[in-house]
Structures are given as structure tokens and as C-alpha cells.
Amino acid sequence: MRRLSTFLILIAFAVPIWLLNGSCGQPIPPTGGPRDTLPPVFIGSNPRDSAINVKSNKLVLTFSEYISVDRPFENVIVSPVPKSQPQVEGRLKEVQIKLRDTLEPNTTYTIDFGNSIRDINENNILRRFKFTFSTGNHLDSGRLFGKALLAETGLPDTTITVLLHRSADDSAIAKERPRYYTRTNRKGEFSFSGLAPGTYHAFALKEGDNSRKFDQPSDMIGFLDSTVNADQERPVTFYVFKPKEDTSRYKPIGLLKPKPVPVVPGNKDDKRFKYQDNLENGQQDLLGRFAITFIHPFKTFDTSRITLTDEKFNRLPGYAIAFDTSGRKVFLDHAWKEGTPYKVILQKGLATDSLGNEVLRNDTIVVNTKRESDYASLDIKFTGLDTNMHPVLILIADEKVELSRKVDAERIKYRLFRPGDYQIRILYDRNGNGVWDTGDYWKKIQPEIVVSRNQKWGARANMENALTINLSEGL
């Protein structure tokens, strides 16, 4: 019995020591729970949100956690637009706002924080947060919404600002502060709320100096053909464009110094006139032109010293030589056959430049053409075709126009077309000249409209690629 008691006592002492040693050998870090992914929550304010008969120009908004306000000068919009920029600060769990202007009587104010409010710990954003109050006995409920797109591409731009003016003077957009303004989102959408009743002159601007005025040659503008009402039920669309250069209407910004022409470094004793071809892995595009680009503009070029031959150096007929306007590039045009080897012979003395460099030796460039199976075939059908609208189909890959052609039939087919992922745009070519034409605000001429489809379309090699386009979509 005594032995059993002694054994139990030893166990009682040993187990805690063993547990202590075990825990020291394998430390387990404390867990902090799942990561916080929730934005701050607005829990109250002084004065309260949507309050009426407000007299104080100091506002305090309280949130559920510690917050910051990202670049309030740029991101926080007060409407109606004040003369002086308000002071907006994030302090602990509060946003404190001081409106430096005297509050207008019987006016509804909206403070749009956009996406500027975020928590400090995880940077979670409280998106599209707005705060509203009125100095009168009611809240104005006028609204306006729609889109602003770049006219030349049909694409949205998050740097576009939409403005509302009361003045009917055409020059107000260049000289006066707007009554209201807001910004577009990544889809080009915008919305106003809390507008005072009445009619407005609406504009969309893309400008770099944040003046919210159309007063610089680089500014882009979109305008409507008529005024809008504060209770507008249908969306409006702006097509923003850069007018043709006309500096007479803008305030002077100083003379721009011409950019220096870059000098290509090199060995002054090396008199070789260097060049490179445009082959892709030694292959010639069946749909393209063989081109050679020289490092400098050439002073002389002897077309008799460039020759196209077959694989056995037999000179071929039916090719032509052409130059581009830069004076650095020469093209060799030929009806290329698929899967065929060619040779381009460049002879000594082919070209010289003004620095005394010249082609010093003969050169042979081996050219192998691609196969037809490397290309896609296209079968494009159109619905809603109205030839009076002069539609033009534009296909763009890697920001380069691959195809631009007038749509004059309900079906277009291409046996060979470069494969790739294409953005599809439709230009409604008002004057039928085949290119996009800009507008003129002062003459009240709208730009030509381009509608861009949201998703890219893939044309795959060695396949017939079918596509149907509704030409009335997006207008």
C-alpha cells in the first residue's frame, strides 16, 4: 500500500514536468482568427445623415474601427461645389469635415467619399460612401445618371469627370466653376443624387490639371445636344473627344520647347549602315510586306541592288519596292506562296546616309513563308445593318488595327486572317470617309461614334471562326 502511494506521488510530480517540457519543445503560436475582410461600418454622425435644417459647417462621422481617408483633396467631392476646398481628416474612428464656405440656405449638400475611406489594419475599402444633409427643411431628390465614353474607341476611362452647370453661356465650361461634378467608374458609369430642381447644362471632361474647366489645348470634352432635368428618368451618354488643335480659345500656357532628336550611340569608326528585317523567327507573313528598317534615314537608295530570288538564286518577277515617309524603311511586296523558301539579296552600295555610313558588303536574307494552316478563316455575319449609318468594322489586336473595312453586306468572309484575340469596334462613319472624325464643341458638332464590344473575340488558326455582330447594339 505504501509503495502504491509513493508511486502515485511520483506520477503526480512527473506529469506536470513532462507536459511543461513537451510544451517548451513544440511551441504553438497563438491564433488570431480569420483575416478581417470587412470594410468599416458607418455607425453615426453629428449631424446625423440626411439631417435637415443643419447650420453647422463642422461634421463628424463615426465608424466601427480605426480608419484613414486616402487623398481627400482628390477623392472627396462636395456638392454643390464650394469655393474653398473643405478640410477632411481621418482621426482614429472618425472622419472630421470642415466646410470653409458659408453654407447656402435651403440647399442639399452631398459629400461623396468614393473609395477613399478604408480601415487601417487591413486596408478594406468602404466603397461609394456618401453623406447627405440639408440647410433647409427638406432634402432635394433630383438625380442624373448615365455613361461617359471615349468617342474614338468607345471605351470607358476612370479619369473622366462629369459636370453640371446652371449657366446657359457656352463659355461657362471654360470660365466658371461647375455647380455639381462627379467621376466615372471603371465601366464609364456616373450618377448624381440630391440635385436641386431645374435644368442643367451637362459636360464630360478629361483634363490633366484638375481645374474642371475646358481651358487647355490637351483637354477632351463631351457635351449633350440639349439640357437635362434634375429628374431625368433615362440615362444620358457622353462621347468625349479631343478637338482639332485650336489654341486661340485657350489661355496661354507658354511655348513648348521642341524635343531633341535622339542620337543613336555608336562607334565613329564603324561606317556600316545597319538595318534589320521584320521576319518573325525567319518566317514571312503571307498577308504582310517584307520590310527592312535602317538605323538612320537613308540619303541614297539604289533599288537595282535589292533582288528577290527563289531558293536556287533565280531572280523572280512580280515584286515591287516601296518606301515609307520616315525615310528609314523599305518594303518588298510580292504575292507570297505558302511554305516556300525565298532569298532577298542586298548588294554592297545599296544605301547610304548623311553621316557617311553605307551598306559595305553583300548580304542574303533567307525568307520562309508561313503555311495557310497558320491562319484563321473568318465568317462574320451582321444583323441590324443600316447602310445609311455607314458602319465600319474595326478589329484590334495588341492595340494595333488589324482590319478596318466598310460594312456594306450582311456577311463578310476572309479565307486567311491572322489568328489572335481581337477587340471589336464599330465606327459609325457619318461622312463616309472611312476614318473616325472628331467633333467641335464651339460649333456644336458631335464626334463620330464608335461602339466597342466588352469582350475580346478569339480567331483561332486552322479553323473557320464564325461571329455574329448586332450593329444596333450599343447605340
Provide tags for this entry.
Immunoglobulin-like; 475 residues; elongated; mainly beta; 36 strands; five-stranded antiparallel β-sheet; 3 helices
Tally of structural domains: 4
Principal-axis shape equals elongated
Task: Give the CATH H-level superfamily of the largest domain.
Answer: Carboxypeptidase-like, regulatory domain
State the helicity in percent bands.
under 10%
Walk me through what this model shows.
- The chain has helices at about 1-25, 70-75, 170-175; strands at about 40-45, 60-65, 65-70, 75-80, 85-90, 95-100, 110-115, 115-120, 125, 130-135, 140-150, 160-165, 180-185, 190-195, 200-205, 220-225, 230, 235-240, 275, 285, 290-295, 300, 305-310, 320-325, 330-335, 340-345, 350-355, 365-370, 375-385, 390-395, 400-405, 410-415, 420-430, 450, 455-460, 465-470.
- The strands form ten sheets. Strands 12, 13, 15, 16 and 17 form a five-stranded antiparallel beta sheet that branches.
- The longest helix is centred in the first third of the chain and has 24 residues, at about 1-25.
- It has three helices and 36 strands.
- The termini are far apart.
- The protein has about 475 residues and is mainly beta.
- It is elongated, with a radius of gyration of 34 Å.
- Helix content is about 5%, strand content about 40%.
- About 25% of the residues are buried.
- Strand 5 and strand 6 (about 95-100) form a beta hairpin.
- It has four domains: about 40-135, Sandwich (Immunoglobulin-like), CATH 2.60.40; about 140-250, Sandwich (Immunoglobulin-like), CATH 2.60.40; about 275-370, Immunoglobulin-like (Sandwich); about 375-470, Immunoglobulin-like, CATH 2.60.40.
